[in-house]
C-alpha cells in the first residue's frame, strides 16, 4: 500500500539548497578520483555534532565479530529490538554519523537498537557486509532475543543490507524477523547500465557520475555479480516498510521493489514524500523527518504486536 505525504517545508527547501552547493560538489569530486585517500573517517566524526534525544544511552559491544553500538531509549519497551544497518554507500558512517538518528528512532519506538559496524568498501566487499549482518543476527538469537522481537532496519546502503541479510538468514535456516524497515534504500546497481546524460540526473546529493562510480567500485569486488534486494526470494520476506522521497535518484528502484514485493504477496507499505534529500529522516531540523520517524514507529509497533502473538502461539503448541 502506498501512502503519499504532502508538502515541502521551508527547512527542507533550505537544506536541499545548501547540500546541492556543498555536499553534492564534494561527492562529485570524489567520483572523479575515488582512489585518492579520502578521509572517510572524518565524515563519520561529524556525527558527533548531532543532537541526541536526552536520556538515550549508548554502549559499545561486539556482535558476531563486529563492533556494535547498543542504543537504549530513556523508556525502553520490553520485547522490542532493532538490528540496524547504517548507510553511507558502504564507504562511510556508522559509529558517530547515525547517532542522532538512532536516538530518535529509539525514543519513538521504545526499542533497544543494535547498530552493527559491518565491513565496508573499498577494503571489503558487499558480500562481507552481508555476512557480518547475518552474524550479528545469529548473535542476537543466540543471546535469547527471539526473532519475533526483532525488526531489521537500515538507511541507504543499510537498507540494501536490511533485505539481503534477511534473505541470507532465511537461506541459512534462521527464522524471519518481525519486519523490515528501509529508508531510501539502495536496491540495485543498475547505474552501470544507464548512460550518463539527461535521462539520469541524480538528485540533491548525488550526481549521475557519482552513482556510476559507486556501482563500478562495488561491481569490481564482485566478479560474479552482487546479490541485491531485487534478487532476494521476496515471497519469504516478512512485512516491509519502505520510505523514500520521489525526488531521490533511488526512487524508481524503490518503487520497483515495492511492486515486486506486493506481487510476491508480502505485506508492503510504501511511504513517499516530495522534494526531500536522501535519507531526510536523519535531519532533525526537518518536520518531515519527525513525521517519517513517527510513521515508522507506528508501523513497527504493529509488526511487533502481530509477530509477538504468532510467537506465543507457536511456543504454546510446541
TrEMBL record:
Keyword Acetylation: no
Keywords carried by this UniProt record: Hydrolase
Chain ranges of the Alpha/beta hydrolase fold-3 domain: 82-281
Origin: domain of life: Bacteria
Signal peptide location: none
InterPro entries recorded: AB_hydrolase_3, AB_hydrolase_fold, GDXG_lipolytic_enzyme
TM spans (from-to): none
Record-stated family: Belongs to the 'GDXG' lipolytic enzyme family.
Name under which the protein is recorded: Esterase
Naturally occurring in which organism (per UniProt): Nocardioides phosphati
